Amino acid sequence: MRKKKLKNSKIITGAVLVCLFGGFYLFSSKPDVIKRIVKKTINYTKLKVSGSYSSRLKDKMSVYISTVERTGITPCRDAKDIETRKNLYKIEQGTFYSIDRLDYSHAYLSKNGKSLLEQIEKNFGEKLSTTDLHDSRFIVTSLTRTKENVRRLRRNNGNASDKSAHMYGGCFDITYARFENDNKKLNANDIYRLKETLAQVIYELKEREKCWAITEKRQPCFHVVCR
Prior knowledge:
Helix content: 40-55%
CATH architecture of the largest domain: 2-Layer Sandwich
Mean pLDDT: 84
Largest sheet: 5 strands, mixed
Radius of gyration: 25 Å
């Protein structure tokens, strides 16, 4: 009985040594293999990235609202008014973004707002160009609001502000909870990567003083205001 236990102990010790030496060999001689294994194993959506770009988008409305009111368009009364404004431009789907169903806004932006959206699109596409997500699009969920839109929104959402930057033509929201890709089914990790790529694009423009931006939590979106 004692010999049998000793024999089993030797077998176990041998197996452990094989695993240790095998692991050492794999780490030292085939680092690329390890990288691939780790990449497939880690669920990046569960990582708390304190240095993430989305966490750096935290401008306050009080910082920009007075400037936006002074430099933006005069707020539109209703849908008919917004469609006749010569200082607003119709926004269509782009190569790297689409327009969501709009319940409380209209697909129009000022000249500067349109240029900012197009710059975000361009930079987003460039950052994805060499990745497996290069066919992805972000989704714009809100653009310019009329006074009528704001009244309706406040009736349905008590937290909505009557001093909305969306009324001045240079503001839009982009969801970070959903993205589109016609050639690839996006999983949770893909969404996370796209979210942080988009946040990086917006943050870099913010640092160049091209915009103000907030990562909204109640409505999962990046709230972007042209500067």
